[in-house]
Amino acid sequence: xxxxxxAAWLPWALxxxxxxxxxxxxxxxxxxxxxxxxxxxxxxEITWNGLENFRTLIDQDLLANAVTVTVLxxxxxxxxxxxxxxxxxLALQRTSGINTVFRSAFFLPTLISPLAAxxxxxxxxxxxxxxxxxxxxxxxxxxxxxxALVVVAFIDAWKWSGLITLVYIAGLNSIPKxxxxxxTVDGAGPWTRFRRVVFPLLAPxxxxxxxxxxxxxxxxxxxxxxxxxxxxxxxxRALNVVMRxxxxxxxxxSASALGFTVTLLVIATAVPLVWWLRRREVTA
Amino acid sequence: xxxxxxxxALTLFAIPWVLVPIWLVVVNxxxxxxxxxxxxxxxxxxxxxxxxxxxxxxxxxxxxxxxxSLKVTVPIVVAVVFLGAAAAWAFGRSRSRWLQAAYFVMGLxxxxxxxxxxxxxxxxxxxxxxxxxxxxxTMTGCxxxxxxxxxxxxxxxxxxxxxxxxxxxxxxxxxxxVRILLPLLRPVLxxxxxxxxxxxxxxxxxxxxxxxxxxxxxxxxSLFQFASGTLQSLNWNLVFAHVLLTTLPLVAVYVVAQKRxxxxxxxxxxxx
Lengths: 284, 272
Fold this sequence. Notes:
The complex is a heterodimer.
Chain A: H1 10-34, E1 37-38, E2 47-48, H2 52-59, H3 63-91, H4 97-111, H5 114-124, H6 130-135, H7 148-173, H8 177-185, H9 190-201, H10 203-218, H11 222-227, H12 239-248, H13 252-279
Antiparallel strand pairs in A: 1-2
Helix pairs in contact in A: 2-13, 3-7, 3-10, 4-7, 5-7, 7-10, 8-9, 10-13, 12-13
Chain B: H1 2-28, H2 33-36, H3 49-58, H4 62-93, H5 97-111, H6 116-125, H7 132-157, H8 161-168, H9 173-202, H10 205-210, H11 219-229, H12 236-266
């Protein structure tokens, strides 16, 4: 039969394969080469130079700080986002009229661009802004080294929490009711039910959300560009921020090296995380 | 009683989380510059709606940004949905090793971050740099993986009897694709395009590297250029007017389609 003919499937996948190969895989492979090459706007010829780009970035005190900032940022984002979203999901799990209104309202920030989210919170958190006047303090949330990174991570988490909440609700609703009922019959209170039944069975949604939020936050740029630009000092200067600066100054090889560092961080985070979280997944 | 407590708590949380940010944007976009600089939440003492929005439309490049955003978002979504569905069909049904290897690469492309600097290099080599075509192709190549991955899972979970029966009845492959596969994949393609539209409409990072000049600037780029145009202290009234106008198209679509969007996202197109 025609449908079982092997070669006949290729044309269906070919356009997608070509696009992904040319515009994702090829740049990915080129990046491995550029990261270890000398390439600047002053010398357009691209030549192999080993670890020189990384060495230069380390000598300028840029690399170690950027890695630390990026990792901290990703962890903060992941923690804030998943705490807020899981709490909201637990409160709004049941599909009812009023819950739908709340779900819809909490989804709104997801529609706002991270850049716009940055401007909005920069306004709210300005020294003479609404947050400070409500709290009765005068604190430069984005200008103080101690709070800048947390606040920027919070803004990123704010923007995405609505979507992550819905994924958690989907996960919660896939848990069989019978299991919860029998746990109740066996005398389990709400907290025990959550810890012993809900939380373990939520593992697929948790895997997805933790991995997505961590990996996504490692590529942070937009919110930082709209709020601190990397400051105060270098306290929010994540890898992509330095990459953009290096690119702007014409150091294309160093910029590639920073991009490659993001890739390495993503691999180092995602592989063990997915493996570990998958291992503790149980099925109902 | 517990329900009352719960919804009171949720409302108290929703006020600073959702209402205050939106209110800040709206009310300050109605104020003259000096008043908006106070960043207060009170109503304007002097209203400056026409002036502010006039400036954003005139100098902020809003209309051109809107056209440019539409010009890239529509082709990207159409290409990702249709090429992704076609590929997912092949990956889900074919047993060819080569195709399975290609499917694995698609999976990797979801997780790994796109390499932006070599992309600029590549587009320059192909004489596609700076314009919207290069941007559309790049975004399509980088976003196909996720939709293919979701849709292939759907195809595999679905028995092929219907497709075989249609083929026996003499339907050509494109006919089977349009009449059987696309309707079958509708829920997952819908969820995929919702997330895709949000991401592409709001994309700033790729646009910053790949789109040159205000003639190509999408809305986020135009917002950034507009906000960065005034050094140090932002003109908050104008920035917020731009933010509002930039977000409005997406919110308008959401208001119309919110039931389906929320249901689609919660009813587990992400399962598997």
